[in-house]
């Protein structure tokens, strides 16, 4: 299965003992994110490093790049306007635009993304139930 993942899922993936990592280790999932998500991670690098227990931010990014394929904005840019008009929070538009471009569901715990109806959005809890 393939999913577009947002920053909150990547935050969870940075913590080895998270439910997100448990799902990823038990199921063959391909995770994809807009390159914009890396900026989000850098923005919260201090908190991410403190909460992950991994050690250094560079190690966290290296680990995430093994788990997630980051896609250049040029691949989904043409769908950003549609994504923005579908969301109450335009900050999430890159995730929705990428999901629209690739015809994939989104894995997110963000209620704003759940509020749109253009692509399916699964929370971590829903994936645990779905995947068993």
Describe this structure in words.
With 132 residues, the chain is an alpha/beta fold. The chain contains nine helices and five strands, in the order βααβαααβααβαβα. It has helices spanning 7-13, 19-26, 36-43, 45-52, 57-67, 80-86, 93-102, 111-114, 124-131; strands at 2-5, 30-34, 68-71, 106-107, 121-122. A five-stranded parallel β-sheet has the order 3-2-1-4-5. Strand 4 (106-107), helix 8 (111-114) and strand 5 form a beta-alpha-beta unit.
SSE inventory with pairings:
Blueprint: E1 2-5, H1 7-13, H2 19-26, E2 30-34, H3 36-43, H4 45-52, H5 57-67, E3 68-71, H6 80-86, H7 93-102, E4 106-107, H8 111-114, E5 121-122, H9 124-131
Parallel strand pairs: 1-2, 1-4, 2-3, 4-5
Helix pairs in contact: 6-7
User: Average pLDDT value?
Assistant: 92
Total discrete domains: 1
Strand order of the largest sheet: 3-2-1-4-5
Highest CATH level, the class: Alpha Beta
CATH fold category name: Rossmann fold
Largest sheet descriptor:
5 strands, parallel
According to CATH, the homologous superfamily is 5'-nuclease
Q: Note the gap between the termini.
A: 14 Å
Helical element count? 9
DSSP helix fraction: 40-55%
Overall radius of gyration: 14 Å
Query: Strand-and-helix sequence, N→C?
Result: EHHEHHHEHHEHEH
């Amino acid at each position: 299965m393939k999913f577009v993942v947002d920053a909150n899922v990547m935050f969870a993936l940075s913590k080895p003992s998270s439910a997100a990592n448990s799902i990823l280790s038990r199921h063959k999932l391909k995770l994809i994110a807009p390159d914009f998500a890396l900026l989000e991670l850098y923005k919260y690098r201090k908190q991410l490093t403190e909460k992950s227990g991994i050690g250094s931010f560079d190690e966290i990014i290296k680990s995430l790049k093994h788990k997630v394929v980051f896609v250049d904005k040029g691949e989904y840019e043409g769908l950003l306007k549609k994504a923005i008009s579908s969301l109450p929070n335009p900050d999430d538009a890159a995730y929705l635009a990428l999901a629209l471009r690739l015809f994939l569901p989104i894995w997110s715990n963000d209620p704003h993304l759940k509020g749109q109806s253009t692509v399916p959005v699964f929370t971590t809890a829903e994936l645990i139930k779905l995947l068993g």
